[in-house]
Amino acid sequence: MSQDPTKKGLEFLEWLDRFGGVKRRWLVKSDEPTDPKYGCVPSERPIDEAIRKGMLVIDKPPGPTSHEVVAWIKRMFNVEKAGHGGTLEPSSL
User: Fold this and answer.
1) Do 93 and 49 share a domain, yes or no?
2) Is the domain of 36 the same as that of 64?
3) What's the first-to-final CA gap in the chain, in angstroms?
4) Same domain, 31 and 56
5) Which letter, b or e, does each residue of 54-84 get, where b requires 16 or more Cβ atoms within 10 Å of its Cβ?
6) Distance in angstroms (rounded) separating the CA atoms of residues 12 and 28
7) Is the pTM of this model over 0.70?
8) Within 13 Å and on the Cβ side, how many CA atoms surround 92?
């Protein structure tokens, strides 16, 4: 039997903290089982679902436009819809 999704979710949050160099203690107020029909832990998400619902962080180099980068992503992942939030322009520093 697989591990409870609540415990897996907490482990995922702790992993993110370690990855980001954050030191904090998580307090779980209620440890209730999670119904799989409401989703899954991101680290266990099937790849096709991750592509459909996911987000990419791109460090865009100077040159290509934001529109070009979005077009490349759509071709690379064979998806009809993609977009960008914020700016993809490099900083002027």
Assistant:
1) yes
2) no
3) 52
4) no
5) eeeeeeeeeeeeeeebbeeeeeeeeeeeeee
6) 14
7) no
8) 1
Number of domains composing the chain: 2
Amino acid at 31: D
**Token reading at 38:** 């409401």
pLDDT digits (tens, 9 = 90+) for 71-84: 999 999 888 888 88
Residues 33 and 59 in one domain: no
Give the model confidence (pLDDT) of 3-47 as tens digits.
Answer: 566 777 788 888 888 988 888 888 877 767 667 787 777 777 888
Q: Are residues 90 and 55 in the same domain?
A: yes
Task: Write down the H helix ranges in 54-90.
Answer: 66-77
CA 36 remoteness from chain centre = 19
* Domain membership of residue 22 as a residue range: 1-44
